[in-house]
Amino acid sequence: MKKMTIKHWAVDDRPREKLIAKGPSSLSAAELIAILIGSGNKQESAVDLSKRILMYVDNNIHQLSTLTVEKLTSFKGIGMAKAIAIITALELGKRRQLANFAVNPKITGSKDVYDIMQPLLGSLPHEEFWVLYLNNANKVLSKTQLSKGGITATLVDVRLLFKKAVEISAVAIIICHNHPSGKTEPSSQDKVLTKKIKEGGVSLDIKLLDHLIITEKSYFSFTDNGKI
Question: What is the pTM of this model?
Fold first, then answer.
């Protein structure tokens, strides 16, 4: 049986025409990806192929953004150029989300920190450790990646953390790292590191305000849970 390509669909059902007529928000994720890849394969239309890719990641766009070029090209009909187009579009979306935040946002609670850091950390397949450096009005002076590690751990040089704080005259810090496992419960190492950093800031008069463990959909705040 010969497949029906997008060109044979009613004009109102074609993704490009639908986008022009009704706007991008009217399109499903599969239809948006279909526009990116342009065509499918001999058995599937671009939309059907896009649906199959999305099914592989349980229709989770964050999970889709973690797929490598190698993995994407394992789908029949997705070559190097199409894989790069998908990855590029998702990266632009992430950067657009980050650009929505003020240059020097003010931190009023753990949710503010999560909103800033989740786009950076939430869907990573490895651990990263970041520091938010704040002034005396709790506005972010800088957000800095201090280390990048493996699937289950990352090493942190506390001296470098405070060196940066002194250089930019920060009076407080918030530390963050992600758990690729999706579990927010702090490990014993997380607790030890938090205590070490808190104590390290005392002599420098630099206060540790919070430590957030970030996952794709949630977070754990040491301060909110009375652990700082």
Answer: 0.65
